[in-house]
Specification:
- About 75% of the residues lie in helices and about 10% in strands.
- By secondary structure, it is α+β, with helices and mostly antiparallel strands.
- The protein has two domains: about 1-80, no CATH class; about 85-110.
- The protein has a two-stranded antiparallel ribbon.
- A hairpin with a 2-residue loop joins strand 1 (about 15-20) and strand 2.
- Helix 2 (about 30-50) crosses helix 3 (about 55-80).
- The chain is flat, with a radius of gyration of 22 Å.
Amino acid sequence: MADSQNESIDPTQFVTVDIYDQTYRLRGQDSAYIHHLADVVDTKMRAVAAQGKSVDSLRVAVLAALNIADELSALEQRYNALVGTEKENVRSRASKLSGLLDAVLTEDRKIG
């Protein structure tokens, strides 16, 4: 009985996904997100396989992982390349929008 109580408290669940014609049973909290990630990996692996002659799934997986890592690194570089003033502009705009939203919500509460 204690096990079933622990399972109901545990927000993780098993999600079954297919990646490059292999089925994986993964654990996570957001099945839609896990499916999305699996689709990204599957698509990248198929693109790598289509460009090469290799049918070795491990080799395809490593090359796909390198491609994904390269994309992540490029995004990190773009983010880090933002100059301090650009980052501050984004923060300032977000703060102003947050203030406007707070004002609207406060006014709505007064009316309601």
